[in-house]
Amino acid sequence: MKCRSDNDHFVEPILKYFLSIFNVFIFILAIGSIVGGSWLLYQKTDVDQTKTNLQNVFDMTADLGGYLITIGIIGIIFSVIGLAATIRENIFFLRIYLFVLILTLVLNLVIGVVFLIYSGKITSAVINRMQTTFVLNYYDDNELKSLFDLLQGQYSCCGIQGYKDWDSNPYHSCSSSTSSLACQVPVSCCKEYITNKDRINIFCSQDVLRDDSKLTRINTKGCRQEIINLAQFGVKVLSGSLVGVSIILGATIIMVQYLLILIRKEKALFNAKNQYSVLDEDDETLDYLN
C-alpha cells in the first residue's frame, strides 16, 4: 500500500488554522465563563453569611452563576472536540462538531428573536423588581445601595416613578416614628450630591415627602426613563452581539462543511489510487507466472 503524497492532500492548512484559532478562542471564553460563574456563586455565599433581606435577588444571581459554569463546561468540551477533529481530520467528530454549530446558530437566532419581541416586557419586569425590591430594601445591601445611588446621582433622578416612591421605604416613610430619616429621601436624590458628595449634609432632603415647598433641594423626577434608556441600549448591544455571533457561527459552519468535503475527496482519491495499485501488482504477478 502506498503512502499519501503531497499531490493527494487537498485540505488547505489555512482552513485548519482558522478553525483551530476559533476553537482556542471558544476555550478561553469557556474558562472565563467558569471563572465568572464561580465568582457569582462566591458572592452568593458572602450574602448568605451576612443574612441580607435580598435573598431572592441573589438567588437569581446564583442561578446565573450556575448557568455560566454549565455553559463554560459545555464550551470546553465543544472546543476540545472541534480542535481535535480539525487537527486529526476526523470525519465522525467533525460531523458532531458541525451539528453542534448548526444547533447553536439556530438557538442563537431563536433567543435573539424572542428577546427582541419581549424586550418591552423584560424592561417592565426589571423596573417592577427595582421598585418592589430595591427601593424597599435600599439599606439592606451596600452594593445595591451604591448602585442605586450611582443611578440617582448620575441621572439626577429620584426613585423609580418619582421621589414619592421613597415613602414606601420603612426608613423614609412619614409614618415611621422611630427613624431619623422619616419624610426624607436618600442623599443621592439631593441636587448637590454629584458636586459635593463627600461633604453633603445627609439631612439635605428633610421633610420633602410632606412639605412640597422644600422640593427645590432634590431631584423630583423618577429614574424610570433612564432605566428604559439603559435597557434599550442593552438590547442594542445584545442584538449586535447576537448578529456578530451568528455571522461567526455561519462562517465557521461553512468552513467545517468545506473541510469535510476536502477530507472526503482526499480519502476517495487515496483509496482509488490504492485500489489501482493493487490491480497493477496483480497484473505483474500474473505476467511473472506466465
Form type: rod-shaped
Helical coverage, percent range: 55-70%
End-to-end CA span: 24 Å
Rg from alpha-carbon coordinates: 31 Å
Task: List low-confidence stretches.
Answer: 1-6, 47-62
What features would you describe in this structure?
The chain has helices spanning 13-50, 55-88, 91-117, 119-134, 142-154, 224-289. It is rod-shaped, with a radius of gyration of 31 Å. The model is unreliable at 1-6 and 47-62 (pLDDT under 50). The longest helix is centred in the last third of the chain and has 66 residues, at 224-289. It is 67% helix and 0% strand. The protein is built from six helices and no strands. The protein is an all-alpha fold.
Keywords:
mainly alpha; rod-shaped; disordered N terminus
Give a brief description.
The chain has 6 helices and no strands. It has helices at residues 13-50, 55-88, 91-117, 119-134, 142-154, 224-289.
Helix-strand blueprint:
Blueprint: H1 13-50, H2 55-88, H3 91-117, H4 119-134, H5 142-154, H6 224-289
